[in-house]
Amino acid sequence: MWRGRSRPREVAGATLGLVGLGSIGREVAKRASALGMRVIGTRRRPAPLDHVAKVLPADRTPEVLAESDFVLLLLPATRETDNFMNAGRLAMMKPGAWLLNFGRGHLVKDDDLVAAVKAKKIAGAMLDVFRQEPLPADHPFWTTEGIIVLPHIGGPHPQRDKFVARLFAENLGRFLDGKPLKEVVDRKAGY
């Protein structure tokens, strides 16, 4: 038996809260629902989505945090999302819930997360992104029981270059034809 590791938890029947139902969040929702999870989440412009039981506006994030067994952060890095998961929002989560950050490192206030996990206010956290990468060797995430550190494995995709090239070629054709481009960054929103 491994020491210092939490016991596996059944995901079927659990609620996954997706904070950020963009294109990645919608793909996660499809896969999570196939595993028998109930999926809820927030979106800047809420509208019904396949595989998502409840799509709520960002101001109803507390409801998502309170209902979720797993909270997955998929928000962009903006001024509004810096330190998004702070002591106040962590306190809104269930004591048995896990925080998963695969969005941006700046979404989590590091000291507040360490304190919440140590005090058993939440079950733990799995982190794939950090404020500073690589994560410094003396960072408390490494030694806090209940925090699992991953080596930023969520971003790279074996077919990424092909996807990017295909999108570029399609957008070049759209540009030349005077059509709207796909996957355009909204500079006002910050992503």
Describe this structure in words.
It is a single chain. The chain has 191 residues and is α/β, with parallel strands linked by helices. It has helices at residues 23-34, 61-67, 87-90, 110-118, 160-176, and strands spanning 15-19, 38-42, 54-56, 70-73, 98-101, 124-127, 147-149. The protein folds into two domains: 15-154, NAD(P)-binding Rossmann-like Domain (Rossmann fold), CATH 3.40.50.720; 155-185, no CATH class.
Features:
191 residues, 7-stranded parallel beta sheet, alpha/beta, 15% strand, Rossmann fold, 2 domains, 5 helices
Briefly, what is this?
The protein has 191 residues and is an alpha/beta fold. It is built from 5 helices and 7 strands, in the order βαββαβαβαββα.
Specify the overall morphology. globular
Question: Roughly how much helix do the residues carry, as a percent range?
Answer: 25-40%
What is the third-level CATH name, the topology of the largest domain?
Rossmann fold
CATH class of the largest domain, anyone? Alpha Beta
Secondary structure topology:
Blueprint: E1 15-19, H1 23-34, E2 38-42, E3 54-56, H2 61-67, E4 70-73, H3 87-90, E5 98-101, H4 110-118, E6 124-127, E7 147-149, H5 160-176
Parallel strand pairs: 1-2, 1-4, 2-3, 4-5, 5-6, 6-7
